[in-house]
Amino acid sequence: MDSPAETRTDKHSLVEILTGAADRYGDRTALGIHQDDGTELRWSFRELERRSRYAAWRLRALGLKPGDRLLTWAPSSPALPAVYFGAMRAGVIFVPLDLRMSADAIERIAARAEAGRLALGTGRDAPDPRDAGLENFPTTSVDELAAEPDESFPDDWETVMDTWERPSRDDVFELVFTSGTTGQPKGVMLTHGNVLASISAMHKVIPPIEHRIVSLLPLSHLLEQAVGLFYAIDVGADIVYVRSRSPRVIFEAIRHHRTTTMVLVPQVLDLFWSSIEREVAKAGRAESFQRLRSIARRLPYGARRWLFRRVHQQFGGGLRLLVSTAAFLPPVLQQAWEDLGVIVIQGYGSTECGFGACTTREDHGLGTVGRALPPVEIRLAEDGEILVHGPNVFGGYWRDPEATAAAFTADGWYRTGDIGRFDEAGRLILMGRTKDIIVLPNGFNVYPEDVENALRVAGMRDSVVLETRPGRIEAIVLTPGAYGLPAGGDTARGPSGMHDDPDAVRETIAEAVKKANQTLAPHQRVEGWRLWPDADFPRTHTLKVKRDQVRAWAVIEENLPVRPGA
Question: Beta-strand (E) ranges in 35-171?
């Protein structure tokens, strides 16, 4: 395994990450996937590099020129990274579409990007262009683009390709659009240099171990691209894609791959932890498990893993590192994993600024997202908004000068829209979004994530805290995720593993709200709560709660009876 110093060189483009990895790691496995027919596809670093060249040639042969846009709409598979790198080689800007996007959003993005072609995924979980009005759009499958050369390739195609202009750090290689469900979607223009800066930061904070990764986040998401693909390839990681959402299949893949490292959003970390707790409760070991956690917290990480070796066997015995970003990570959830001897590194950033700050293996305290990694700089505006400056920050939104101007301060710092503060050691602590802050009639500010975290500590896994009328703070809570009740209030197993009736569970929720209120300042306290009617909150493709939709529901439902919070 190469050290960070050996891999962190002055590269001109992301393509050089792949070519360098092919030279260093050769026939070692880079990417793999369990296919629909039950077989396993595995590509070496050299194979991935070769396939990317096939994709680059075909994109140019299809008439795409440097600067043209290519829509990519596909579930994760080895062919998709080959197409990404192929587009970079050809100078084509790819525009990833997420599988969870609405049809309306996809139509808006396709029109806004003025794309020339669609690269479509294959398999039983692949999208159908007809669902988004793209049935007449010029389309080629990602598998076709990355396939072995056919008779259409001239004998000198490689020689010709070697004459193409090579991408540079300042070239835009990707447009990542906002969902576009309302109004005009904004396209974040990312250059090779932007992402290379984030990868350089990752080399400074992620330990140089032999990384075996199971990829669960969509490759349409920049986090998975930057950490789970580009950085992972740079350090010679072995990556496996899992397209099934079945927990059994996912855990089997993690165990079989002897996974060491995973890049996840907090909700997936929570789902995994819930699975561990259910297994512990089923075995009747809940109390002893909690006692062992309190003991492990005072031990070295290797000793913690030995203490919980049975749990680690479920993950193949090699899990060492979790990288979490994209949403607030509850400190109690981070502590739970670290009790087991798994280091949790938390990154902070957005599509517009990549890795703005990050904790490290040596300093990963609860509740912080660490420090900015030079040359990246972070400062706070007068109202607490987090501002970021550095080579990782994007250059602007696609053909939208007004939105671009609004995203930056007069002296060129990116406005994140997040509120934060620094602790006494200079580490950044997130406090929520500027648009979500509750300003009470008495002038006090309430940060919803502070209250939601208190509710979580009190036993409520999922909640959304809102001001439903001036001065009144309420919590909208999930029944299924927190207590095992299906929507509609039918009986089900509660957290104890016993069957609980709806009234008993609702009483438990009320008690949790009361307990949380005892830890909150008077102006933060929850005055009432109500149950969300569905099995889960509406979420983005990165599993963040769509607070606007929850807020709209709360306004409509405000005349319904509301249970007292304390």
Answer: 40-44, 69-73, 93-96, 117-120, 139-141
Partners of 445 in the β-ladder: 439
* CA gap 198, 174 in Å, rounded: 15
Distance CA 418, CA 426 (A): 17
Per-residue pLDDT of 377-401, as tens digits, reads 999 999 899 999 999 999 999 999 9
The pTM of the full predicted model, rounded to 2 decimals, is 0.86
| Length reported for the chain | 566
Instruction: Give backbone dihedrals phi and psi of 407, rounded to 5 degrees, phi first.
Output: -85, -10
State residue 442's pLDDT score.
79
Whole-number Å distance between alpha carbons of 259 and 238? 9
364, 343 Cβ separation under 8 angstroms: yes
Q: How far out from the chain centre does Cα 379 lie?
A: 24
For residue 48, the model assigns a pLDDT of: 98
Rounded to whole angstroms, the Cα distance separating 82 from 80 reads 5
What is the amino acid identity at position 297?
R
pLDDT digits (tens, 9 = 90+) for 273-282: 988 998 899 9
Half-sphere exposure of residue 256: CA atoms within 13 angstroms, side-chain side: 15
Across the chain, which distance is largest between two alpha carbons, in Å? 77
Distance of alpha carbon 466 from alpha carbon 95, whole angstroms? 35
CA 457 to the chain's CA centroid? 23
The pair of structure tokens assigned to 453 is: 């975290």
**Domain annotation for the chain: domains and CATH numbers:** 4-24+41-192 (3.40.50.980), 265-433 (3.40.50.12780), 437-564 (3.30.300.30)
How many CB atoms are located within 10 Å of the residue 309 CB?
A: 12
- Measured between alpha carbons, how far is 211 from 222 in angstroms, rounded to an integer? 19
Question: Is the predicted pLDDT of residue 84 greater than 90, yes or no?
Answer: yes
What letters, b where the CB count within 10 A reaches 16 and e where it falls short, cover 313-338?
Answer: ebbbebbbbbbbbbbbbbbebbebbb
User: What integer best gives the mean pLDDT of the chain?
Assistant: 87
Model confidence at 180: pLDDT above 80: no
Nearest Cα residue to 540 out of 354, 337, 274, 350 = 350
Pairing of strands 117-120, 139-141: parallel
DSSP 8-class letter at 347: E
